[in-house]
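Dear Dr. L.,

I hope this message finds you well. Following up on our conversation about the binding site, I have prepared a predicted three-dimensional model of the protein together with pyridoxal-5'-phosphate. For your records, I am including the exact sequence and ligand specification that went into the calculation, followed by the C-alpha cells. Please feel free to forward this to your student if that is useful.
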Amino acid sequence: MTEKKILSETLRKDQHLIWHPFTPLVGAEMPLSIVKAEGIYLYTEDGRKILDGIASWWVNLHGHSHPHIANAIFEQAQKLEHVIFAGFTHEPAVKLAERLLAILPANQSKVFFSDDGSTACEVAIKMALQYWYNLGETQKTEIIALQGAYHGDTFGGMSVAERNLFNRPFVEKLFDVHFLPFPACYRVACCAGKRNNPSCISAKATIQTMHKLAETGKIAAFIYEPLIQGAAGMRMYSSEILDELLSIAQKYEILCIADEVMTGFGRTGKLFASEYCSQKPDIMCLSKGITGGTMPLGVTTCTEKIISAFRSAEKTKTFYHGHSYTANPLACAAANANLDLLLQQETLQKIFQITQMHANFEAHIRFQKAVAEARSLGTILAIELKSEQATSYFNDMSKEIYRYFLQRNLLLRPLGNVLYVMPPYCIESSELEWIYQEIEQFLQQKI
Ligand SMILES: Cc1ncc(COP(=O)(O)O)c(C=O)c1O
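The resulting structure of the complex is given below.
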C-alpha cells in the first residue's frame, strides 16, 4: 500500500469515527489530514505546506516539533512517564513550579497543576469560593466577570462566560454571575481612538457597575482575561481601566483571578499581560503556551493570602480537587524546555519584532474601506471586517475568510468577521510580510 492510500483511509475513517470540536456534524468541510509539522508549517497528506498563522489555537510558541522540547519529552518518557501526584512528587514538577514563580508577578507563591485552560479556570474559581468558605465568610459567594468573557467549556468556565450559543443548551444549569459591561475603550466611537482614556463612557459604565456590585459585600471573586478577550473576537481594553477595576476589587476584598490562558508566555508582548497593570491578581490561570504547544497542561497559581485559608489539618479546609494526570512529568518536562526557549534573548527579541511589525501593519490598514477596526497588542493582530451582520463568532463571513486563506496555504481561523494573526514566535519577518500581503489582497477584493 502506498503512503497516500493509507492516509486517505485516515480521512475516510475520521469521518466515520471522530467528532471534532466546535464543528457541526453536517455541512462542515473535510478536515485536513496533517502528517507532519515543522517550524511554522503544517504538511498535509496530499503534499500541501500550510503556514500556521494562529499557532494551532494559540498554543504554539517556538514552531512545531521543536527539537529541544521533543528531546525533553523523549528523555523524560524514558525516566518517569507519570506518577500519582497525591502523596508523590517529582523533579520536573518542582523545577517548573520554581521557574514559573520566578517569572510570574512576585505575589504568586504556590502552583496547582491540572490539565488544560478550562481546568485551570475551574480550579481558580473553586479556590476562590473555598477561600471564603474556609474563612467562614458565608455571604461572599458571588462572582463578577466581564461581558464577552470566555473561560473554557467546563461548567464553571461556562458559568463565568458570556451567555451565548456556545452554552445555551446548558444555561439552566449554569450558576449566576454578574457581568460588567465590556470597557470597549479601544473603539474610535467610544473615546476618539485614545485607547487609554479611562474617562470614556464605556469605561465609566464598567467602573460604576463594579462599584455597585462591590458595595454589596457579597462578591467572592472577579475573573477576567487581562487586556484582551480572545474568543470574543480579540477584543482589547486598556490596562488603566483594568487597574481601576482591580483597585476597587482590592478595596472591597474581592479576589482577582487573571485568566492568562491565552495571554500568558509572551503573547501580549510581556511575559504575562498582568505585568501591564500595577495591581496584581490573587490567582492566575495558565495553559496553552505553557508547554510551547506540545503537551496539555494547566496551572493555577495563587498568593500566600489564599494559601493561608487552606493551611489547616481540618478535613473541611482541604482543597478536594485533582485530575489523574495532574503534573504529568512529560508535560512538565515540555514546559521546562519551553521556558528554556522562551527566556532566551533571541525569543524575546522576536516577540518585540512581531509586536512592531503588527503595530505598523495595523496602522497601515486601519482606514481601509473593508476594515471596521484594526487593533494589535504584542504578537496578536486583529482586523474586524465591516459586515451587514453583527460582529460575532457566528458572523457568516468566517467561512469565506477561512476558505480564502486556506486556499492560499495560510491557516487563519477567523472569529466570525474578526480576522486575526497570532503566529509562533519563530516566524521570519519575510513570512509575516507575506501574511500581511495576503491580508491586504483580501481586503482589496472586499471593496
Ligand atoms: C482565556 C481562556 N481561558 C480558558 C480557555 C480554555 O482553555 P482550554 O481550551 O485549554 O480548555 C481558553 C481557550 O481558548 C481561553 O482563551
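In brief: The mean pLDDT is 94.

With kind regards,
A. P.
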